[in-house]
Amino acid sequence: MDRARAVTDLVIPLFRNVPAARSGVCRICHTGPNNKPNGEPYEICSSCARTVNGFRRHAEPVVSISLAVEEGDDNGLFRLVARKEAVRAGTSWLSPETLMAASLSRFYDAHEACLIQVAGGPFTMVTTIPSTRLDRPIEAFHIMPRVISMIGALRDHYKPVLLPNDRYAAVLAGRDSHPDAFQMMGMLNGSQALRGERVLLVDDLFVSGAHMQSAAYTLFKAGAEEVVALAILRLIVPSAWHENRRSIWQEASDQPFSFDRCCLCAAARRW
Ligand SMILES: [Zn+2]
Ligand SMILES: [Zn+2]
């Protein structure tokens, strides 16, 4: 834990607080929904509305450690976690894997109780989403399992169970979910193999929910009692034309980031 703290402290100015759910904050992904014609915000954003549409069950809320932007001077975390670029931290270089493992470890240590409350009990299984990005180098396919293997609190419950269905990779790339985008591995397929399991579903980057919600759907279909989604980054696109997104990013950039609050407990603690 001291090491996770030391590593994350090296780049703490890159992190941005994820807001608690409130009016103007999507109750699923915690970014900004559009406003209705009467000026009031929708309860969920258009991405979430699209990616949970038609699913009997979906992951809610999706918990992310930090907001991140793809463009501009503030995109350091995106470069590390999404583009897998090493960044300079003081006199040394910080690898994406090291930072991802340290972030998850420190966050889980601080907010295990918050996540367990959503799950309705302790997690019985931890799993990750296999890459569907066919254009990525082979190393990218195994980075999340390697990251989880570096985290003492998560690795003992880790079980890879999902396989991508390549036929739907283009659907996911287009930011739509699909009930068949993932399938259970081998013998687990077509059975209720996850009956009674409370699953922590971990991914590096949440953009639209296409991957996360499709994967959660497959876990629920296999019998999972609960699926709690945890992403390292929630991509946000602040735009002058999207009042709620713009103000969420502004607020997050104005506040100091803290690993002591998360989007679940922040409201109760009045951060
Ligand atoms: Zn949303
Ligand atoms: Zn918390």
Largest sheet: 4 strands, parallel
Q: What coarse outline follows from CA principal-axis ratios?
A: globular
Number of separate strands: 8
Q: What is the chain-wise order of helices and strands?
A: HHEHEEHEHHEHEEHEH
Nearest-angstrom radius of gyration? 18 Å
pLDDT < 50 stretches: none
Counted by DSSP, the helix tally is 9
Mean pLDDT: 92
| β-sheet strand percentage | 15-25%
Number of domains: 1
The portion of residues assigned to helices is 25-40%
Which secondary structure elements does this structure contain, and how are they paired or packed?
Layout: H1 2-10, H2 46-51, E1 62-68, H3 76-81, E2 87-89, E3 92-94, H4 96-119, E4 125-128, H5 143-149, H6 152-155, E5 162-164, H7 169-173, E6 182-184, E7 198-206, H8 210-221, E8 226-235, H9 243-254
